[in-house]
Amino acid sequence: MMILSRLLGCQEQLGFLHQSKEELTDSHPVVCNRNILVELEEGVGVAVMKMKSPPVNSLSLDFLTEFSISLEKLENDRGCRGVILTSAVPKIFSAGLDIKEMCGKSAEHYAEFWRAVQEMWLKLYKSNMVTIAAINGNCPAGGCLMAVSCDYRIMAENPKYSIGLNETQLGIVAPFWFKDTIANTIGHRATERSLQLGLLYSASDALKIGIVDELVPEEKVLNAAAATMSQWLAIPDYARQISKSMMRKPTLDRLLTHRESDIQNFVSFVTKDSIQKSLQTYMESLKQRKG
Ligand SMILES: CCCCCCC/C=C/C(=O)SCCNC(=O)CCNC(=O)[C@H](O)C(C)(C)COP(=O)(O)OP(=O)(O)OC[C@H]1O[C@@H](n2cnc3c(N)ncnc32)[C@H](O)[C@@H]1OP(=O)(O)O
């Protein structure tokens, strides 16, 4: 697909794609925002959302806001029926929530941040479009949440990449809707073990346990996603969308019902001295690992 080669080319521009710009070429509207590149191939009705927030595509408030707006625009575009979510940052899908957003900030900031995390998940999980994660790099915690919120996951078969909800390793707890989303994917028992131990699975183990649906060589991830997308789009939208909603509505409703208390829980948890200390220690350990 042309769209794929042009997006791969766009990766080279990462260093100077900071301004928002919109262009129309070959009938492919391209939107290059600060954090996410969106290209819609109109004839096919498929958009590729390419996360491009180096160094690790961490989910900052700014990133999450842009993600939700971009997805909503696609959702409202009748010409778009499917979205492939992938990364333009080499070796990283997403490092998950931006830990800096959870350290040393005000209660108001934490509430705003958490609402944006909820919004990203609500929009992605309930999307009427076919959503496919093309996982071309490491995918811990919030990155894994994004991936398991899609309809289908294809991961690069690179032994260096891992995926999972590793929150307990940071001394924090994945909220109930993270738990529900992964349990809907891999089942109760595997989720129990995975969450308690904060497991990060290698690509091959992720396939065995069902966090991902397919492994392909790294350079084929986008083509494989495009091929799977064609299969899913062959199903009439209406029937597929109702089936999706039937499976996901109870999980979505649970957060919608408890949205405000979930925000309060997050704020009271993240403002605890012990949690602040755990998060700061973890950030320092990431820096030390580098040196
Ligand atoms: C308190 C209440 C909690 C309620 C529940 C909240 C649910 C939480 C969900 C989450 O998503 S928490 C985030 C969990 N994420 C991780 O544990 C991933 C941490 N990162 C990594 O393991 C690695 O960075 C990587 C993704 C495997 C990439 O490794 P690589 O060697 O390529 O890069 P690094 O040198 O480690 O990182 C580069 C740079 O980026 C910073 N960074 C990494 N991850 C994050 C992050 N999640 N948030 C903010 N910043 C991050 C890292 O510190 C480096 O910074 P510099 O040293 O260059 O300044």
UniProtKB/TrEMBL annotation:
InterPro entries in alphabetical order: ClpP/crotonase-like_dom_sf, Enoyl-CoA_hyd/isom_CS, Enoyl-CoA_hydra/iso
EC number, UniProt record: 5.3.3.8
Main enzyme class: isomerase
Pathway: Lipid metabolism; fatty acid beta-oxidation
The entry's keywords: Acetylation, Fatty acid metabolism, Isomerase, Lipid metabolism, Mitochondrion, Transit peptide
Gene Ontology terms, MF aspect: delta(3)-delta(2)-enoyl-CoA isomerase activity
Any single GO CC term annotated in Swiss-Prot or TrEMBL for this entry: mitochondrial matrix
PROSITE patterns assigned to the protein according to its UniProt record, in alphabetical order: ENOYL_COA_HYDRATASE
UniProt-annotated location(s): Mitochondrion matrix
UniProt KW Repeat keyword: no
Record's catalysed reaction(s): (3Z)-octenoyl-CoA = (2E)-octenoyl-CoA; (3Z)-dodecenoyl-CoA = (2E)-dodecenoyl-CoA; (2E)-tetradecenoyl-CoA = (3Z)-tetradecenoyl-CoA; (3Z)-decenoyl-CoA = (2E)-decenoyl-CoA
Family: Belongs to the enoyl-CoA hydratase/isomerase family.
Complex formation: Homotrimer.
Designated name of the protein: Enoyl-CoA delta isomerase 1, mitochondrial
Species this protein is from: Alligator mississippiensis
Name of the gene: ECI1
